[in-house]
Write a structure and sequence with these properties.
heterodimer, A: alpha+beta, OB fold (Dihydrolipoamide Acetyltransferase, E2P), 2 helices, about 40% helix, B: mainly alpha, Rhopdopsin 7-helix transmembrane proteins, 14 helices
Chain lengths: ~90, ~375
């Protein structure tokens, strides 16, 4: 009886340890905006960050050809111009 | 602005909170698992004691049993949450809602029940006369209060049940409306980890709930119980100190331990949570965010710790309870240890029988309501 209990506890410990030992990816968010809006030709594309998901502010995330992500203020005119430019590029692709 | 050259220094990039991540990787395997195991063992022992050896007679008994239940549920939910966070929420959408919901319900019920225990002790010690008259109805009251606490906890957790969803964490919400993929393929195909978090359809609701949920947690899940406990236990200490009894200091020490541990475990987390809620929608630096996330991780761990300290602070500190517990140990496997335990428990007997004796004649029943 004692040994089965011991095994049960050990199994529990092993299971819990194994669960906790794995790695997680953390979420990443834009927290403030780039001062300067990057130009369209440097960009591969963009995605949208909204307050309605895990991040807490709205942002346009530009993906540069250099593989970086740039946070831009969606209310800025220049940001919208770049977005439109990228949209046009996407339309032309299809 | 437009005339200076495009350099990477003035670019705001996505914030990854790397340091917090490192802390999480240390805290989760070593600390959280230890807390879960200790919490499970301690609280299951409390439940077993009540189930088989000691009928829940007093109000405090009923509360303690419910605290233990809440802590066990928490200790079960926590590893499952962490498991799912590792494995893309493989248990699915309902597991996300349910586990997060259970977590929230237990947070509220646990804290509110501790406040109920302090109120019950306050009535037993400070309002001794009134408690004497009420005694016959006590069990009914305590059950009604417990149900009320659980219902309240459930009600406060409704936003969690409703607004938590699983979705891909590409750190980005891909713009599906336009249905194009300007996005570089390497980002898109990696897909990102699935996460379980707030998901709203409207911006207004997001703004309200993202502030309301943590604010309620700090207010109802911490400050209300803190105020109740502060008032009740300080009155108890005053009454105890007025009573002439050589054992009162022991009782005061137990009260102090309960309060100090509660504050030490929960104050840091709730202060940081409050700060987090205040700066939530503000523009901020990544380094700052990383630090804040780190502080939240560490202080949250401290708050978790409370769930495995509860059995010690409330149940096993009580003489009667320890006696029952020893009986379990004897029955289970350590008949040989009987001698040691019976000696130890007789030595500390009647820590809290003291207070009642000093305020009013009847001893036994209320002493058990003040299981310390």
């Amino acid at each position: 009886m004692v040994s089965t209990r011991f095994i049960a506890v050990t199994l529990l410990v092993v299971f819990i340890l194994q669960t906790f030992l794995l790695q997680t990816e953390s979420a990443s968010c834009c927290l403030s905006y780039a001062k300067k809006t990057p130009m369209c030709h440097r960009m591969k594309g963009f995605t949208i960050q909204t307050n309605m998901r895990n991040c807490d502010m709205d942002a346009i995330i530009f993906h540069t050809k250099a593989g970086k992500f740039i946070c831009a203020d969606p209310s800025k005119k220049l940001t919208q111009i770049t977005v439109k430019c990228l949209n046009r590029r996407a339309m032309n692709l299809s | 602005m437009a005339d200076y050259n495009f350099t990477y220094e003035d670019i705001e990039e996505l914030c990854e909170t790397e340091n917090n991540h490192k802390v999480e990787q240390i805290v989760r395997p070593y600390v959280h698992s230890a807390i879960c195991i200790a919490g499970l063992l301690g609280n299951i022992l409390v439940i077993i004691t009540y189930a088989f050896y000691k009928r829940a007679k007093s109000m405090t008994d009923v509360y303690l049993l419910n605290v233990a239940l809440s802590d066990v549920l928490f200790a079960v939910a926590l590893p499952l949450i962490i498991y799912n966070e590792e494995y893309n929420w493989s248990m699915g959408r309902w597991a996300c809602k349910l586990l997060r919901g259970i977590y929230s319900v237990n947070l509220y019920s646990g804290m509110l029940l501790l406040a109920c225990i302090s109120a019950d002790r306050y009535i037993a010690i400070v309002q001794a006369r009134r408690s004497f008259r009420m005694r016959s109805r006590v069990l009914v009251y305590s059950r009604v209060i417990c149900i009320a606490v659980w219902v309240l906890a459930l009600g406060l957790s409704i936003p969690t049940f409703v607004y938590y969803e699983t979705y891909r964490d590409k750190h980005l919400d891909f713009d599906y409306k336009h249905n194009f993929s300007v996005i570089s393929t390497d980002v898109d195909t990696s897909g990102g980890q699935k996460m379980c978090y707030f998901w709203f359809e409207e911006d207004d609701m997001a703004q309200i709930m993202k502030v309301l949920v943590p604010s309620m947690q700090v207010a109802v899940g911490f400050f209300v119980p803190l105020l109740v406990m502060g008032f009740c236990y300080s009155s108890i200490v005053v009454t105890l100190l007025r009573a002439r009894n050589f054992q009162r200091h022991k009782a005061v020490r137990v009260v102090m331990a309960v309060v100090v541990v509660f504050i030490a475990c929960h104050l840091p987390y709730n202060i940081s949570l409050l700060y987090y809620t205040v700066v939530l929608f503000q523009l901020r630096e990544c380094a700052e965010e990383d630090k804040l996330a780190m502080v939240l991780t560490i202080t949250e761990t401290l708050a978790y710790l409370h769930s495995c300290l509860n059995p010690v602070l409330y149940a096993f500190i009580g003489v009667k309870f320890r006696n029952h517990f020893c009986k379990i140990l004897e029955d289970l496997w350590c008949i040989g240890k009987r001698y040691i335990y019976s000696r130890r428990s007789s030595r500390v007997t009647s820590e809290f029988y003291v207070s009642r004796r000093s305020t009013e004649g009847s001893i036994n029943e209320n002493a058990s309501s003040f299981t310390m």
